[in-house]
Amino acid sequence: MFWKRKSKAADAARGRHAIPEGRRVYAIGDIHGRDDLFARIIELIRADHAARGPADITIVLLGDLVDRGPASAAVVERAMGLHKEFPDTRLLIGNHEECFLAALTGDVRRLRYFMRIGGDATVRSYWNDDESLDAASFEEVAERLPALVPAEHVHFLGMGEDVVEIGDYAFVHAGIRPGVPLEKQSLSDLRWIRDEFLDHLGDHGKIIIHGHSITAEPDEQVNRIGIDVGAFRSGVLAAMGIEGSERWYLYAREAALEQAV
Ligand SMILES: [Mn+2]
C-alpha cells in the first residue's frame, strides 16, 4: 500500500510549511475554458475569505485558462476582472497559454499545433461565426485570429509569470526539474514537465503547488501538491487555500454534479 505510506508522510509534513502571517493565498487549478466553474470558484473564494476574517488576499491562477472547454475568451475576461477586484492576483503561464500566444503571431504551423492540443475550442470562443470557422483553412484562421482576440487579452496573458514564491511554497504550472534551483528552471520544464517531476520523491526545498497533470483528487505528496482535477471533463474545479501553516480545499462543481452530491 504504497499510497498509504506516502499520504501518511504528507500528513506529517503538514504544519511544517507556512506562509507569512497576515496573508491568505488561494491557488486555482487548470480552468481550461470552464467559465461556469471559474465563476463558481470565485464565489466560493469570496465567501471563504470573508468567513475567515481579515487578511491580505493573494490569488494564484496556476495556468491553462484556455483550450478544451467551451468558453476560453470568457475565462480570460473573468481573470482580468478578478485581477481588478483582487490586485494581488498572480497569473502563471501554462503550456496552453504559451501555444495560444504563439498561434497569435500568424504562424500557420504554430496555429495548427495549437488547434490540435485543444486550441480549436479557444479559437471558436473568439470567432464570431461557427460556419465561417468550419469553412476556414488553417492559413485563413492564422491570418484572422489575431484581429479577433482583444489586445487587452493578449496583454494580460503576456504579463503572466513562471514562478510565484510565497513563504515555504512555490507555485508553478507543470512542475520543476528536480535538482535544479528554482531560479534556473527552464520555461519548458516549468510549463510542460511531467514524469521526472511527478515521480521524484526528494525534497525540493519548497512545497511545489502545481496544475497540468490531472488526478481525480488533489495529489498531496511530501514535496508537491497537484490540484488539476480535470475541470474540462470532470466538471470539478479545485482551489487550495493556505494561511499560516494551514491548508484547505474548495471545489466548484457543475450544476448536475451538485445535485448528485
Ligand atoms: Mn498544462
CATH superfamily of the domain at 24-92 and 163-260: Metallo-dependent phosphatases
Determine the strand fraction and express it as a percent band: 15-25%
Question: How are strands sequenced across the largest beta sheet?
Answer: 3-2-1-9-10
The CATH architecture name of the domain at 24-92 and 163-260 reads 4-Layer Sandwich
Structural class: alpha/beta
Number of strands: 10
Rounded to the nearest angstrom, the radius of gyration is: 18 Å
Order of helices and strands: HEHEHEHHHHHEEHHEEEHEEH
Form type:
globular
CATH topology of the domain at 24-92 and 163-260: Purple Acid Phosphatase, chain A, domain 2
Describe this protein's structure.
With 261 residues, the chain is α/β, with parallel strands linked by helices. The chain has a domain at 24-92 and 163-260: Metallo-dependent phosphatases (Purple Acid Phosphatase, chain A, domain 2, 4-Layer Sandwich). The chain is built from twelve helices and ten strands. It has helices at residues 2-13, 35-52, 72-85, 95-103, 108-126, 130-135, 138-148, 151-158, 187-192, 195-198, 231-234, 255-260; strands spanning 23-28, 56-61, 89-91, 164-166, 169-171, 207-210, 219-220, 224-226, 236-243, 246-253. It has a five-stranded mixed β-sheet. It has a five-stranded mixed β-sheet with strand order 4-5-6-8-7, with no helix packed on it. α4 (95-103) packs across α5 and α5 packs across α7 (138-148). Bound molecules: manganese (II) ion. Manganese (II) ion binds at residues 64, 94-96, 173-174, 212.
